[in-house]
Amino acid sequence: MFRQWLTLVIIVLVYIPVAIDATVLHVAAPTLSSALNASGNELLWIIDIYSLVMAGMVLPMGALGDRIGFKRLLLMGSGLFGTASLLAAFATSASWLIATRSLLAIGAAMIVPATLAGIRTTFSQARHRNTALGVWAAVGSGGAAFGPLVGGMLLEHFYWGSVFLINVPIVLMVMALTARLVPRQQGRKEQPLNLNQALGLIVAILLLVWSAKSAMKGVLPLWIIASTLLVGGLLLATFVRLQLAAKTPMIDMRLFTHPVILSGVVMAMTAMITLVGFELLMAQELQFVHGFTPFAAGVFMLPVMLASGFSGPIAGFLVSSLGLRRVATGGMALSACSFLGLSVTHFSTQPWQAGILMALLGFSAASALLASTSAIMAAAPKEKAAAAGAIETMSYELGAGLGIAVFGLILSRSFAHSIQLPSGLSSHEVTQASSSIGEAFRLAQESNTGLAQEIIAAAKTAFISSHSVALSTAGVLLIVLAVGIWFSLAKAEQPSR
Questions:
Q1: CA-CA distance, 244 to 240, in Å (whole number)?
Q2: Which InterPro entries match (predicted)?
Q3: Among 222, 321, 483, 497, which residue is least crowded by beta carbons within 10 Å?
């Protein structure tokens, strides 16, 4: 019995940095912009490459764990995660950091299925296994929710690379404990890996996201954007065709034909898009516009973190008593109200209003996440529970990555259109300052024309306007989605009575 819970401690210990790394860089965006001379576009890739790569790799890494055993997969993933953390901590350019964040994601994609397989293998009794899974889920959601606060605490006292260096001693300890205390498992050599298909999926996702970002910026020729979009679409279509034809597919695409499962996937992605995208927006505005330190920005965002972290039990009770349809629709609708309220809230002069609305957002979005899990797992046939769980995990990671992309695109587009720069700047300087608030601040610091304060004031005003556009747009879209969810779940079985 002691050995089981010791294994859980090891699993939780290595899962903490994996969960935190999904959001730890949100408050570091201004710091990275200055330290690495990262453009607004590079900054978005630095942050969201982690979730996008992990979304494509988590399924084949789970198959690799079945093939070699979860202990070996945990050791391999931890080693890669620690090495990538060390490389990321000493990055000297944005491209270096993007590459090392991709390696981090591959390591994390090994760790996550290894931890779940470890729990499933170690705990034979259902009661103990459910408790262990509850602890695992709490660590995952809590780590992601409190990532900005952890990042802020480290940046307050150390240089930005410390958010990665802190992973290294944890990983070394976990590898030592795993090698000595965790029993070895027998793998199944006949298990297919489908790595080529996974790489094709990742390339398709990245090409589609890149083409969307480029189209919104309007800088590249249309034929380049259209060609990239076409290649990404063809790769995605090929992936779907291969999954439908395969005897042991990575993803059972036929599950998407079930309206309830499809609704659950949409809810999961939307909830992650709103939570992750909002945290990134907030972190930049609080620091660039209102002068908060990274740690103060993390503390200011505590309401959304606490509400999302502690909403699970309450949301579970609501699903049981009110039914999935009402909780799912209500979660989306309340998130919409939160965004609409936050779009007209001034964070410096109305902190209490901002705090209440953020708490409402954290609770409602996390409730929608739980409702999505209930929808997917309840609608899937018992023999396809594992496939449904894989779809759910992928939806979470893809939603997290798309949250950065979607909010970043709306912000950058609105910022470029609303900024009113002073006269006397060259066309190159106007282009630089209009690309992002970080670029505008960098131009002001380097400017020798005496216009620094006017550039900064224009950038702050434009970002506040952009924040209103982004949040109100998200609010309207969530209202539309809530209506769609209400009708799509109309025929779902409800355990409310």
A1: 6
A2: MFS (IPR011701), MFS_dom (IPR020846), MFS_trans_sf (IPR036259)
A3: 497
Q: Which two tokens stand for residue 119?
A: 């729990």
pLDDT tier for residue 219 given thresholds of 50, 70 and 90:
low
Residues with Cβ within 8 Å of residue 98, at least 6 apart in sequence: 42, 45, 46, 49
Residue 89 structure tokens = 């901590």
Q: Are 419 and 459 in contact (CB under 8 A)?
A: yes
Contact 359, 304 (CB under 8 A): yes
How far apart are the C-alpha atoms of 415 and 418, rounded to whole Å?
5
CA distance 463 to 29: 15
In single-letter form, the type of residue at position 106 comes to I
Give the three-class secondary structure for 158.
coil
pLDDT at 234: 92
Structure tokens at 174: 């976990």
Taking the whole predicted model, whether its pTM rises above 0.85 is answered as no
Residue (of 112, 129, 118) closest to 178 by Cα position: 118
Per the CB < 8 A criterion, the answer to whether 21 and 167 are in contact is yes
pLDDT digits (tens, 9 = 90+) for 334-373: 889 998 998 888 888 888 998 999 888 888 877 777 777 6
Task: Tell me the per-residue pLDDT of 92-108, one tens digit each, with 9 for 90 and over.
Answer: 888 899 999 999 999 98
SS3 of 80-110: the string is HHHHHHHHHHCCCCHHHHHHHHHHHHHHHHH
CA distances from 179 to 14, 175, 380 (A): 14, 6, 37
d(CA 258, CA 379): 8
C-beta atoms surrounding 129 within 10 Å: 16
Joined together, the tokens standing for residue 384 give: 């396809």
Strands (E), 203-346: none
What stretch of H or E contains 356?
A: helix 351-379
8 A C-beta contact, residue 332 and residue 379: no
